[in-house]
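Thread amino acids onto this structure.
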């Protein structure tokens, strides 16, 4: 065994940090395997189902955040247009449509090659995922339920007011 092999064997599994974060925040979670944990978080617009997966072969912590919105076949093309508009604005992560299931999810990965994850990095991954879903969920609703175009949905949901009435 070389020094680097020993070092890799003693690193903390980042999912242990994620599990501790979920427990401290009293979020419902399930650790289905050594390399995967799923957490349920109540959001303002929708509940988020967040899955963290440790991908040992590339030393990456992957996060996928799905939410309760099923895309019907007749709205998939417009949702894909909306995803394109949204992803142009994303600095971290992206949204995908899993066509077979009709499910939209936010995804991102934290590459940790040779390093260990920190509590703060795990917290930020969760924050970024939930905030992205919260920010764009109304746009997805407008397209899926209200039949709006992707552009109309983006214009309506990104409209920001300044000041108070």
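Threaded sequence (165 positions):
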């Amino acid at each position: 065994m070389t020094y680097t092999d020993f070092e890799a064997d003693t690193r903390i599994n980042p999912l242990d940090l994620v599990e501790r974060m979920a427990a401290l925040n009293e979020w419902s979670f399930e650790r289905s395997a050594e390399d995967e944990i799923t957490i349920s978080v109540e959001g303002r617009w929708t509940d988020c189902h967040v899955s963290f997966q440790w991908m040992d072969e590339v030393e990456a912590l992957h996060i996928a955040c799905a939410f309760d919105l099923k895309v019907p076949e007749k709205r998939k093309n417009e949702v894909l247009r909306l995803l394109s508009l949204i992803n142009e604005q994303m600095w971290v992560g992206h949204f995908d449509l899993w066509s077979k299931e009709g499910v939209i999810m936010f995804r991102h990965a934290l590459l940790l090659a040779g390093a260990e994850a920190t509590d703060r990095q795990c917290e930020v991954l969760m924050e970024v995922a939930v905030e992205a879903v919260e920010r764009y969920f109304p746009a997805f609703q407008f397209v899926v339920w209200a039949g709006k175009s992707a552009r109309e949905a983006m214009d309506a949901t990104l409209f920001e007011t300044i000041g108070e009435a």
